[in-house]
């Protein structure tokens, strides 16, 4: 499933001053010299992301979209991304290599960090066109391995025990997304009202101790080896926190509930012919790797994530109507809020 990032401050950020950036990198990034050529990645709408190239090397610059004074408190916290990526270096969950963090907004007008450019394959269509059945199965199995490995890690062993609150994750998330949805509401969505009433009364007690969550784990946030089914880097840690790992995995699994015409979903495709596991097969593989059992609570986790996704799209709709959205297709994304809410409510009712 390929979805935009959470709503935040909009408006296209101006490209960084390449000369000022180059001067700073010469002082803070080992072996860097020169003025980089900058080109913006098509993604990274929430935190603008640029390829910075010199004659000898390529880097990626990940920026806040605006100075801190113009952002809501805690929004676009690239310093959290940088911290978690540094913590995961050398682990079974590979991040892109990180080189330097700059919180001094005087350099290019906003905070940023520098990471390595990882060359490989990024799949934006979950049906993986162009691959054969065996390759598709191997890609999904590798994604399953990586997210299971992430959720198996002890945050304390990564020096991330303070990376988020470890208690009451789901009630806090339900309250947070309810508040964000109400702030962005533009028209009544009956299915969303039903979810708003159902979720607080049906939340799961959790599946064990709090673990590190990615928050947006999907195929297009993974860089695969150019020819092997091996993840070289997990990108976009903006939503990472501590919490219930099954909520993180359920978000990853929404693609099986969504039709191909929406967000490159898999619902209705001949998965066996494609070589792609069914949702239940993917779920069983994850549970086996984690050594846990997943039962009737799975329905809640899926419904919760559709509620969260509906809130995300509603935020985009609000910004589109206010004329402050940075994505050209913001209205199209915003119109998916009722669709996501309906999918979530259907799952809540056992449909």
Describe, in plain words, how this protein is organized in 3D.
- The chain is globular.
- Helix 5 crosses helix 9.
- It starts with 17 loop residues before the first helix and ends with a helix.
- The protein is 39% helix and 11% strand.
- 45% of the residues are buried.
- With 351 residues, the protein is α+β, with helices and mostly antiparallel strands.
- The model is unreliable at 2-12 (pLDDT under 50).
- The strands form 3 sheets. Strands 1-2-3-5-4 form a 5-stranded antiparallel beta sheet, sandwiched between helices.
- The protein has helices at 18-28, 78-88, 133-152, 169-184, 190-202, 245-252, 271-274, 279-290, 298-322, 330-334, 337-348, and strands spanning 37-40, 49-53, 58-63, 98-102, 112-116, 211-213, 222-224, 231-234, 241-243.
Distance between the termini: 20 Å
Q: Would you report the number of β strands?
A: 9
Globally, the shape reads globular
Widest sheet, order of strands: 1-2-3-5-4
Which percent bin holds the helix content?
Answer: 25-40%
Report low-confidence residues grouped into runs of 5 or more.
Answer: 2-12
- Global Rg: 20 Å
Reading the helices and strands in chain order gives HEEEHEEHHHEEEEHHHHHH
Strand percentage lies at 5-15%
In short:
With about 350 residues, the protein is an alpha+beta fold.
How would you summarize the topology of this molecule?
Layout lengths: L17 H11 L8 E4 L8 E5 L4 E6 L14 H11 L9 E5 L9 E5 L16 H20 L16 H16 L5 H13 L8 E3 L8 E3 L6 E4 L6 E3 L1 H8 L18 H4 L4 H12 L7 H25 L7 H5 L2 H12 L3
Antiparallel strand pairs: 1-2, 2-3, 3-5, 4-5, 6-9, 7-8
Helix pairs in contact: 3-8, 4-9, 5-9, 5-11, 6-9, 9-11
């Amino acid at each position: 499933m390929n979805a935009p990032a959470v709503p935040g401050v909009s408006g296209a950020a101006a490209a960084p001053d390449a000369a000022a950036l180059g001067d700073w990198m010469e002082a803070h990034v080992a072996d860097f010299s020169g003025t980089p050529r900058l080109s913006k990645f098509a993604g990274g709408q929430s935190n603008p992301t640029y390829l910075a190239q010199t004659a000898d090397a390529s880097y990626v610059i990940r920026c806040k979209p605006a100075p801190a004074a113009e952002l809501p408190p805690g929004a676009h916290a690239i310093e959290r991304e940088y911290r978690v990526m540094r913590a995961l270096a050398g682990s079974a969950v590979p991040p892109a290599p990180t080189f330097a963090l700059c919180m001094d907004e005087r350099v290019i007008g906003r905070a940023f960090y520098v990471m390595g450019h990882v060359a490989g394959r990024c799949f934006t269509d979950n049906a993986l066109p162009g691959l054969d059945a065996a390759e598709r199965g191997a890609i999904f199995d590798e994604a399953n391995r990586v997210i299971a490995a992430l959720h198996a890690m002890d945050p304390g062993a990564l020096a991330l025990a303070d990376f988020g609150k470890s208690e009451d994750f789901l009630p806090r998330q339900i309250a947070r997304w309810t508040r964000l949805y109400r702030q962005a509401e533009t028209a009544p969505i009956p299915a969303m009202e039903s979810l708003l009433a159902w979720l607080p009364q049906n939340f799961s007690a959790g599946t064990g101790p709090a673990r590190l969550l990615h928050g947006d784990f999907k195929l297009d946030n993974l860089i695969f080896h150019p020819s092997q089914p091996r993840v070289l880097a997990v990108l976009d840690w903006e939503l990472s926190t501590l919490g219930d790992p099954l909520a993180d995995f359920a978000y990853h699994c929404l693609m099986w509930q969504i039709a191909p015409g929406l967000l490159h979903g898999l619902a209705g495709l001949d998965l066996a012919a494609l070589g792609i596991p069914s949702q239940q097969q993917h779920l069983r593989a994850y549970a086996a790797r984690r050594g846990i059992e997943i039962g009737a609570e799975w329905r809640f986790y899926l419904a919760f994530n559709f509620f969260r996704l509906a809130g995300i799209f509603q935020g985009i709709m609000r910004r589109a109507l206010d004329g402050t959205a940075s994505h050209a297709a913001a209205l199209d994304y915003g119109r998916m809020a009722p669709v996501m809410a309906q999918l979530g409510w259907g799952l809540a009712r056992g449909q």
